Automatic annotation (TrEMBL):
Protein name: NADH:flavin oxidoreductase/NADH oxidase N-terminal domain-containing protein
InterPro entries (UniProt xref): Aldolase_TIM, OxRdtase_FMN_N, Oye-like
SUPFAM superfamilies assigned to the protein according to its UniProt record, in alphabetical order: FMN-linked oxidoreductases
Gene3D superfamilies: Aldolase class I
Species this chain originates from: Aspergillus glaucus CBS 516.65
Start and end residues of each NADH:flavin oxidoreductase/NADH oxidase N-terminal domain: 29-130
A Pfam family matched in the record: Oxidored_FMN
PANTHER family: NADH OXIDOREDUCTASE-RELATED, NADPH DEHYDROGENASE 2-RELATED
Highest taxon above the source species: Eukaryota
Alphabetized GO MF terms: FMN binding; NADPH dehydrogenase activity
Length: 221
């Protein structure tokens, strides 16, 4: 592990060993009543096959559909392999809490592994894993993003169903990416908004009272 790295273990981005983590020392966030969340994510079919091959690994995903025509065909995760990944996320959360994070956010957006299980553009499984995994604490979704070949034609039913399911898990928060955000760029959109998710989740997070009203009447109208 290099001097600037603090989040690598196995195939998932995780926090480092508790006694070596730079996050845990020098930051008195908790004393200042602050919060810090560790974002957990994995590339899936967006990974570089040449880098993986050096360690004897393959590109994996929820199905065998490549990210784009020029990309490698991923190996679908099935059965015990999926459970191994879930277990990795579980241990990542424990490690994050151990070194001082308030909690974790599951990075379920823009065509990375969790998003690949959610959307039918790449998830070709027909068993119990055909639906999105219920992994919690904090969850991030990007319904409208076309980044890296994603975005379903009829996204409302799928993301409404997911959001209602996440609501029942009593998450710390749900992080929904604006339609104007695609990857790391801002795009012009018309007629796209996240209003349909407000009622589905039932908790408006950072939009209390008048601020929620202003958001509904302007940005999300």
């Amino acid at each position: 592990m290099g001097p600037t790295q603090f989040a690598v273990l196995s195939n998932v981005i995780l926090v480092c060993e508790p006694d070596k983590c730079p996050i845990a020392s020098g930051i008195d966030l908790h004393d200042a009543r602050g919060f810090i969340f560790c974002q957990l994510w994995a590339l899936g079919h967006a990974a570089d096959p040449q880098i993986l091959a050096k360690d004897g690994h393959q590109v994996i995903s929820s199905g065998s559909l490549p990210m784009k025509e020029s990309s490698s065909v991923p190996k679908p995760l099935t059965g015990d392999k999926i459970l191994d990944w879930i277990n990795d996320y579980f241990h990542a959360k424990k490690d994050a809490i151990t070194v001082g994070f308030t909690g974790v956010e599951i990075h379920g957006v823009i065509s990375y592994l969790c998003d690949q299980f959610l959307q039918v553009t790449c998830n070709t499984q027909e068993d119990r894993w055909a639906a999105a995994s219920r992994i919690g604490t904090g969850y991030r979704i990007s319904p409208w993003s076309t980044f890296q070949g994603m975005r379903m034609e009829d996204l409302h039913p799928q993301f409404t169903h997911l959001t209602r399911g996440l609501r029942r898990l009593n998450l710390a928060y749900l992080h929904v990416v604006d339609p104007q955000t695609s990857g790391s760029t801002t795009v012009e959109v018309a007629g796209e908004d996240n209003t349909f998710l407000f009622d589905a989740f039932g908790n408006t997070g950072r939009y209390p009272g008048r601020r929620l009203s202003r958001a509904r009447n302007s940005r999300y109208q």
